[in-house]
Write a structure and sequence with these properties.
The chain is mainly alpha-helical. It has three helices and no strands.
Length: 89
């Protein structure tokens, strides 16, 4: 296994992490922006008002995107396990 193979494996791992985490991060960002706008308009600066909706949105996104996340992680793991003989040489 040479440097190019190690870099490709690292790139695949980073791409998988970004794909898996992006739905939760994007939804949390959107909900946080909406809550910040509401807080600025109403001048209510309650800390729990920012955290609770974000937590609920992330949990909801896990429920919605869970099967897709599992599919992406399974594909990466299967590819890794199928090529394990090549990686350990």
């Amino acid at each position: 296994m040479n440097q190019g193979d190690v870099l490709k494996l690292a790139q695949d791992a980073i791409r998988t992490v970004l794909l898996v985490s992006s739905p939760m991060l994007v939804i949390s960002l959107i909900v946080g922006l909406i809550i910040s706008i509401i807080q600025a308009v109403t001048q209510i600066q309650e800390a729990t008002l920012a955290f609770v909706p974000k937590i609920m949105a992330v949990l909801l996104s896990l429920v919605i995107f869970g099967p897709w996340i599992l599919k992406v992680m399974t594909q990466f793991t299967l590819e890794l396990l199928n090529n394990i003989n090549y990686y350990i040489q």
